[in-house]
Design brief:
There is one protein chain. With about 150 residues, this protein is α+β, with helices and mostly antiparallel strands. The chain is about 25% helix and about 20% strand.
Length: about 150
């Protein structure tokens, strides 16, 4: 229980601290027109030094953008739900990132812009040397028998 409480506090602090500074410019990552983003779009920013390794080891990768410091992976909206992304990552809702000119560096072969969030989360944790942590929302879920 204490671990989950601390996890939620760290996550809330990280989300607060990782956002762009007040007045900082943000840009929405521009998906290519051929892609359908029916699930909404969020983005996970990972330090550039991990980008090539992640790209080469993920079984399926959606659109990936890069700026000078971070590689941005497009994920479905709400992919932060119950996941404790490592502190070195930046999770932004709406794919509005604090970057000058992010450029598309990977375009998937299929017509979905998304990288599956669970494999991305697990691989990010692995390359950063952080054990994966889930923060379950609510209590135990049980279905009563009729």
């Amino acid at each position: 229980m204490l671990r989950n409480a601390m996890s939620h506090l760290r996550r809330a602090r990280r989300l607060h601290d990782s956002g762009p500074p007040a007045g900082a410019e943000t840009v929405r990552l521009p998906l290519p027109p051929a892609f359908s983003a029916t699930l909404g779009c969020d983005a996970v920013g990972v330090p550039a030094r991990y980008g090539v390794r992640l790209l080469s080891h993920l079984p399926r990768t959606g659109c990936v953008f890069a700026d000078t410091d971070l590689w941005w992976w497009i994920v479905p909206a709400g992919s932060d739900l119950d996941l404790d992304w490592p502190v070195q990552t930046v999770y932004v809702r709406g794919a509005r990132v604090p970057a000058d000119r992010p450029r598309l560096i990977h375009r998937p072969d299929n017509h979905t812009p998304y990288t599956p969030p669970i494999p991305l989360f697990l691989m990010v944790c692995q390359v950063m040397g952080v054990p994966p942590s889930w923060a379950p929302s609510g209590g135990a879920r049980a279905v009563s028998a009729p």
